[in-house]
Design brief:
The complex is a heterodimer of chains A (112) and B (109).
Chain A lengths: L4 E3 L2 E4 L5 E6 L6 E7 L6 E7 L2 E4 L8 E5 L5 E5 L8 E8 L5 E3 L3 E5 L1
Parallel strand pairs in A: 2-11
Antiparallel strand pairs in A: 1-3, 3-8, 4-5, 4-9, 5-6, 7-8, 9-10, 9-11
Chain B lengths: L4 E3 L2 E5 L4 E6 L6 E7 L5 E8 L4 E4 L2 E6 L4 E6 L8 E8 L4 E3 L3 E6 L1
Parallel strand pairs in B: 2-11
Antiparallel strand pairs in B: 1-3, 3-8, 4-5, 4-9, 6-7, 7-8, 9-10, 9-11
The chains are: A mainly beta (112), B mainly beta (109).
Chain lengths: 112, 109
């Protein structure tokens, strides 16, 4: 079974630029999550999708972050404009029913 | 917000020794999960313990859960250099996981 795919793996941008991350969950997993992990901390939920609907985006900085899940499968997370404090690893995870979440390898973003 | 708090923040041991990490949380949960993260890599699921379970084993891993104290522990027996990683507990209250800050384990040979 293929795992959760993410791209790119690494991205370096300057502040005020925009960036987008892509995630392809495990086939059949209805629930998809985006987490932000700042160095030295645990992952923090940004947004949760159930199929193509948003379940929880309470911690998503909506003035600069946006996310969508196309046709209930792939998802993109965008930051525009980026700030220095957005430097982090962005993790995508998917889940089937109430079982454990499976995480992708993450995208490491550096904002200079 | 982070619910789980791991203790200790860092742990250094020799190969063959046991490693114990603790996690405390604040609210009621459906289950508690432990994840491992190697440097620069994604999170790997280790074990899940449900709120009505008290102890669970998986290979060299032993997890306990005390819901009255809102705490859990992860024991890794006979540690190996390959166990060097960060370990996170994550609580599941029905929606997304809430992670702690993690314990960094270093196993030297």
């Amino acid at each position: 079974e293929a795992g959760v795919a993410q791209s790119p793996r690494y991205k370096i941008i300057e502040k005020r630029q925009s960036v987008a991350f892509w995630c392809n969950p495990i086939s059949g997993h209805a629930t998809l999550y985006w987490y932000q992990q700042i160095l030295g901390q645990g992952p923090k939920l940004l947004i949760q999708f159930q199929n193509n609907g948003v379940v929880d985006d309470s911690q998503l900085p909506k003035d600069r972050f946006s996310a969508e899940r196309l046709k209930g499968v792939d998802s993109t997370l965008k930051i525009q404009p980026a700030k220095l404090e957005d430097s982090a690893v962005y993790l995508c995870a998917s889940r089937y029913a109430s079982y454990e979440q499976y995480f992708g390898p993450g995208t490491r973003l550096t904002v200079t | 917000s982070q619910q789980g708090e791991e203790d200790p923040q860092a742990l250094s041991i020799q190969e063959g020794e046991n490693a114990t990490m603790n996690c405390s949380y604040k609210t009621s949960i459906n289950n508690l999960q432990w994840y491992r993260q190697n440097s620069g890599r994604g999170l790997v699921h280790l074990i899940l313990i449900r709120s009505n379970e008290r102890e669970k084993h998986s290979g060299r891993l032993r997890v306990t859960l005390d819901t009255s104290k809102k705490s859990s522990s992860l024991l890794i027996t006979a540690s190996r250099a390959a166990d060097t990683a960060s370990y996170f507990c994550a609580t599941d209250a029905g929606t997304a996981l809430i992670f702690g800050k993690g314990t960094t384990l270093s196993v030297s040979s």
